[in-house]
Amino acid sequence: MVRWLNDRLRRLPVWAVWLGGLIPLALLVWDTFTGGLGIDPVRDIEFRLGRTALYFLIASLGVTPLLRLSRISLMRFRRALGLLCFTYAVLHVLAWLSMDMGFLWAQMAKDIVKRPYLLFGMTAFLLLLPLALSSNNLSLRRMGAQAWRRLHRLVYLAAPLVALHWIWSLKTFPVEPLLWLAVILALLALRLAVPRPLRRGGLRGSGKEMA
Amino acid sequence: LTGAPSSLSTDQPPNSFEEITNYNNFYEFGTAKEDPARHAANMTTDPWSVEIGGLVERPGSYGVEDIAPENALEERIYRLRCVEAWSMVIPWIGVPLASVLQKAGVQPGAKYVAFETLYRPDEMRGQRYPILDWPYREGLRLDEAMHPLTILATGLYSDPLPNQNGAPIRLVVPWKYGFKSIKSVVKITLTDNQPVCTWQKMQPSEYGFFANVNPEVDHPRWSQATERRIGAGLFGGRQETVRFNGYGDQVASLYAGMDLAKNY
């Protein structure tokens, strides 16, 4: 069953993941131009972009635990998932500074250092930036697998910060962002609870990509 | 409904009926802005009575028509500034709260007015969760309550107040953050000590008793320096928030000598 699924997945081209991953953006653009957003479209655009970024962040964090637990390998798509997350994060930040803040640079700068939710969000974004920039084969080769892998551990810090960013921006404690924080922490804990197999031979062909 | 025009109205263009009735904070029906429009229809608003008590001469149960008789209605077009840093302009129809309190007869010892929202979890689904300490409660100092800008609203544009906006009767205090303007009021109590307010009790470092709009006193987690006007479009930008939401000429004297950074 797992082998059958992995065979299928191997035949799925990476661009298909990109195409699927851009559907939420296409829907958002569609809603924006057809009046499908709510009374405050600025807030809806910001929320939907931020939310989608979080979903792809969680998806990319889920790849390794899924492999270790079930042997189902989505490793080939992890780079696309991470870059999709970053794409939505960039758009989220752009929407904030243009539509929400109206390019009030001074207020934005003051707010980022003063407001916990902005500090969490911006820190997470800055942590993801080097990961996106080094997400190509050339960087991987130049840095060496060890250093590259070490750098990309920054995501373990960025992910909980993203959830805190959401929680701290609200007036009360609704369940949803707390739930996502729990999911993130669970995915991180799984990495410790189910360690990487020492023998590479058990996963022929995909050992090199393990991280 | 029609209300006599008032010189206290702003000449800024009001938001549309659709905007005002589909973008609400009324946590009794859920925390999303769309929840009140979606779920408030379940609330029974007729019959309705408001219990006026405490330090008053004529305590008792008052009907909406007693409190806001049709011939006393005024139109008040007010700016509304939410603590979340967005704003609207809303054409309310209602009566000055002072006229209602005078009807009940304020006793000399009264210093504050406490308000309470309906508590009816089977019709108000948000109340089934402990998001806030139900029922929602708010309060004003007596001079704030007697101020001519302070009204009890029963209408919006020419309609009776829609449920999601606090039907059948709600408070409107335009120089304070929106959460002070308590909705669907069932209880008004005159007291001699400062009443409990729901948000203040929940998070006193973030929400004060006065909650006057003030760009210089930030909410600890977000700035109050600017606001976004709902309906301004995708690139409408932000406008500067004005002290007392622009009603300083009328109300600043109420707070003469007070440190508003401490009494936020």
Automatic annotation (TrEMBL), chain A:
Record keywords, A-Z: Cell membrane, Electron transport, Flavoprotein, FMN, Heme, Iron, Membrane, Metal-binding, Transmembrane, Transmembrane helix, Transport
Domain Ferric oxidoreductase: 50-161
InterPro entries from the UniProt entry: Fe3_Rdtase_TM_dom, MsrQ-like
Membrane spanning stretches: 12-33, 53-69, 81-105, 117-133, 154-171, 177-194
Localization annotation: Cell membrane; Membrane
Textual note on the cofactor: Binds 1 heme b (iron(II)-protoporphyrin IX) group per subunit.
Membrane topology designation: Multi-pass membrane protein
Biological role: Part of the MsrPQ system that repairs oxidized periplasmic proteins containing methionine sulfoxide residues (Met-O), using respiratory chain electrons. Thus protects these proteins from oxidative-stress damage caused by reactive species of oxygen and chlorine generated by the host defense mechanisms. MsrPQ is essential for the maintenance of envelope integrity under bleach stress, rescuing a wide series of structurally unrelated periplasmic proteins from methionine oxidation.
The family this protein is said to belong to: Belongs to the MsrQ family.
Protein name per Swiss-Prot or TrEMBL: Protein-methionine-sulfoxide reductase heme-binding subunit MsrQ
Species: Paracoccus marinaquae
Gene coding for it: msrQ
